[in-house]
């Protein structure tokens, strides 16, 4: 496992030293097309990491941290967390977060921590994503649902996964199903099984209103779960445990090694992020 940092910063006269550092050490970066922003990735095992990290902190730039695993580590895992690195569009209606009350039953929604929403209707968006070579996406504000192309939905259903439902996504204005976008809704929720270590999370949040506890993951460790909470007849499950900051209150989606191989063999994994789960 490597610890990856995603940095972004505004290009200006005061950030010329960062660009010079990246060029001098041949660290690749990308310039955004429409705004003066540069994005790059760095790893803690790079020889220049201490100097680079100090430089970025000097500029008040902090990173998004995530673990990166080798192909061997991924293939050895019985279960893996999956999430999409490609985000497209916002759930509708987006005025005043109206989708929370139309897509979800918000009876028990907690305005303090964001927990308590239960999906009751189809998601609505403005249009089908520009997929390119991608097959999976997530929506902004909705971190724990996967949306996919028709081809991906067909491949996933090859395993006939228990308690996984492919739901149409509706065009917000007309209410008609959109072409080539589906929600891959995972219904089965595991019993609590996360073996918590202090280095796994940056913050533990205890909501004083609804009494829910959620964690902000550090992104620096491999998550550990009890093996006995997994039923091997399932191929996609959710965690009982909740995570996120602010109004984000998400469960993790976990897939079996069988499902991981189906997705990889079908070349459906572009911009999907997999993280192996350690079982005890």
Topology of this protein?
Layout: E1 2-10, H1 16-24, E2 29-31, E3 37-43, H2 49-58, E4 64-68, H3 71-76, E5 79-84, H4 99-102, E6 104-105, E7 118-119, E8 124-125, E9 136-139, E10 142-148, H5 150-157, E11 164-171, E12 177-186, E13 201-206, E14 213-217, E15 224-225, E16 236-238, E17 242-243, E18 253-256, H6 257-265, E19 272-279
Parallel strand pairs: 8-11, 14-17, 15-19
Antiparallel strand pairs: 1-3, 1-4, 2-3, 5-18, 5-19, 6-7, 9-10, 10-12, 11-12, 13-14, 16-18
Task: Characterise the protein shown here.
This protein is of the alpha+beta class. The chain folds into three domains: 2-68, Alpha-Beta Plaits; 71-84 and 189-279, no CATH class; 95-186, no CATH class. It has helices at 16-24, 49-58, 71-76, 99-102, 150-157, 257-265, and strands at residues 2-10, 29-31, 37-43, 64-68, 79-84, 104-105, 118-119, 124-125, 136-139, 142-148, 164-171, 177-186, 201-206, 213-217, 224-225, 236-238, 242-243, 253-256, 272-279. The longest helix has 10 residues, at 49-58. It is globular, with a radius of gyration of 20 Å. The two termini are 19 Å apart.
Summary, kept brief:
The chain is α+β, with helices and mostly antiparallel strands and 280 residues long. Helix content is 16%, strand content 34%.
Largest beta sheet: strand ordering = 15-19-5-18-16
The succession of helices and strands, N to C, reads EHEEHEHEHEEEEEHEEEEEEEEHE
Shape: globular
Radius of gyration: 20 Å
What fraction strand? 25-35%
Number of strands: 19
Approximate helicity band: 10-25%
The poorly predicted ranges are none
Q: Which class do the helix and strand fractions yield?
A: alpha+beta
- Kindly state the mean pLDDT as a whole number? 95
Number of alpha- plus pi-helical segments: 6
Number of domains: 3
Alpha-carbon distance between the termini? 19 Å
Q: Largest sheet at a glance?
A: 5 strands, mixed
